Each structure stands twice: as C-alpha cells, then as structure tokens.
Amino acid sequence: MLWFYTLLPSMLPFLILSSLILHMGLLDPLLTKGEHIWRRLLQLSPQGAYALFMGILCGYPMGAKTTADLYRKGSVSRQEADYLLTFSNYPGPAFLLTYLCVGILQREDLAFLTCVILYLSSFLTSLFFRPSSQKRELQTDCMPSSPINLSEKSAKKASGSLSFGEALDASILNGFLSITKLGGYIILFSIFQVFLKKALPATPWVRYPVLGLMEITTGLSALSTSSLSFPVQYVLSLSFTSFGGFCVAAQTKSMLSGTDLSLLPYLKGKICCSFFTLIITLFLVKIIKVIV
Q1: Mean of pLDDT values over 9-30
Q2: What's the mean pLDDT when you consider all of the chain?
Q3: CB within 8 A of 122, min separation 6: which ones?
Q4: Which helix (H) or strand (E) holds 169?
Q5: If we measure between CA atoms, which residue out of 24, 11, 12, 10 comes closest to residue 168?
Q6: Dist. CA 288–CA 282, nearest whole Å
Q7: Cα separation of 76 and 136, whole Å?
Q8: Which phi-psi region, left, alpha or beta, contains residue 244 (left: φ > 0; alpha: ψ -120 to 50)?
C-alpha cells in the first residue's frame, strides 16, 4: 500500500520525465547557462547538477538513478559519478514533510528545521568527498572544452536521437521498470522486518536502531510507538532518515545495474551524512535545546 499510494504516484512521473529529458537531449540547454555556479559551489558539471536536483526533488534513490543514466550516456565521468553518489541521494521533501514530520513525529512546526538539518548534512558530506585535487581532470572529462566539441556533440545527438514518440515509450518502460524494482525491495525488507521484530530483544537501544537501519518507513513507524522521549526519537528519526537504510542501499545498487559504478561511494557518503546529522541534531537538542 505504501508503494501503491505513495511511491507510485509521487515518483513515477519524475522517473518518466527525467528519462524523457535525457532521451531528447534537453539537458544541456536547461543547465549549461549556470555552469560556473555549479562548478564553483559544488564542483559539478551542469549534467551532474541535474542529477543532484533530481535527488533533492524526488527523493531516494532518484539521485543515484539519474547519475547512473548520465554515466551510461557518457555525460559525466566516472569520477564525477562516484562523487555524486556520495551526496546526491536525498529523502524527498514530500517524505520529510508529510510522512516524517506530520505522520511520524506529529510536529509540523519542525518541518523547516528538519529540512535544514538534513540538507545541511548532505552539503557538508559533499565538502568532505569533494575531489579538489582532481578538479582539472573532472572539468576535462565532464564537459567539452571548446565550441567545436560542443557542435560535434550536438551533431551526434541530432543524428542518433529518438523521435518524441519513441523517447516517450522508452521513458515510460524505463520508469515502470525502476518503480517496480523499488516496490519489490520495499516489500521484501518490510517482510524481513516482521521477523526481526519477533527476534530482537525488547531493549529500545537494540531494537529500534536495527529496525531503523533496515528500512526507514517501517523503522520510523516502530520508533514512533516506543517509550523513548521525543528529543531522543527526533535524533534517531533524522539519523535513520539521513542514512536511508539498507533497503535504500539495495534500491540504489539496482539503479546502478548495467554500469561499473560501485555502491561503496554511496555507502561512505551515507555513513558520513548520518554522522553529520546525528551531531547537528544532538547539538540542537542537548545544547541549544530548541526541541522539546
């Protein structure tokens, strides 16, 4: 039901639209004008910035899927793809606002603070993994260096591009394949959690971290019914959400199929991001005491 009523209608249109944009070669005109901004702020090419935006707007695992799609097309280098995997997979705004803040925490007033904490943690993660020593290599690999190369690239795209109908058919097929994979992983991990709930001890500091690290939706739901105080629930909820859970890691791995990209950069990035989230949230709860 979670997949059918939430994931399917909220993510499938973005999956289809993103694939259509790539098939039709519309990405360069959309983002090339802000190239200097993406490179200076995040050290990304315009194509890499698109993967980041999709990850922010659509949520797990859209950032990884878009990165893999761009890498297959040769639009980003291996180095930039690995860099993107460390911080481009986000929990979507709809998940944060409706499911986490309203549904689980029942604190709509914490929506803005929650978004700031999680997105700030991801930005700090990007700084930690930024390949500054290879910046020149990133620039030469990801973007053409002259107008001649740009015109040659456009000519190749025009000669081998699909018609709108063909691109739309391919995008719909790709979107349904991806969304079905995600649903399968959510179902399998949710069933696995049923067995974990019976096997794990009742000790809160063992039970809820394990459930939260496996699959975030059911893990957060279980955490909300615990006897832990609200500040503790808030810290754990944001940390689990930032990490994404092993279910999202499995989804991300499936999105990388057909490429030689490794899941390791993603796992490193998620561990680092969840650590930043934990430290920032603990500081706000224990030191500043903005959450009661």
Answers
A1: 78
A2: 83
A3: 87, 90, 242, 273
A4: helix 164-199
A5: 24
A6: 9
A7: 14
A8: left
- Asked if residue 139 has pLDDT above 70, the reply is no
Cβ atoms of 104 and 97 within 8 Å: the answer is no
Q: Is the per-residue pLDDT at 16 higher than 90?
A: no
| 91, containing H or E segment | none
Nearby residues of 222 by Cβ (< 8 Å), 6 or more positions away: 193, 197, 207, 208, 211, 212
pLDDT value of residue 150: 33
pLDDT for 54 beyond 80: yes
CA distances from 66 to 16, 47, 171, 172, 199 (A): 11, 10, 13, 15, 37
Sign of the Cα pseudo-torsion (57, 61, 64, 66, in order): negative
Percent residues over pLDDT 70 in the chain: 86
Rounded CA separation 188/198 (Å): 16
Domains: count for the chain:
1
CA distance 113 to 254: 32
The residue with greater pLDDT, 214 or 26, is 214
Return the structure tokens found at 234.
Answer: 């808030």
Domain of 170 in residue numbering reads as 2-288
Q: What's the rounded Cα separation, in Å, for the pair 130 and 118?
A: 18
**Interior angle at CA 44, CA 41 and CA 49, nearest 5:** 95
Contact present, 76 and 45 (Cβ < 8 Å) = yes
Report whether the peptide linkage leading into residue 61 is cis, meaning its omega lies within 30 degrees of zero: yes
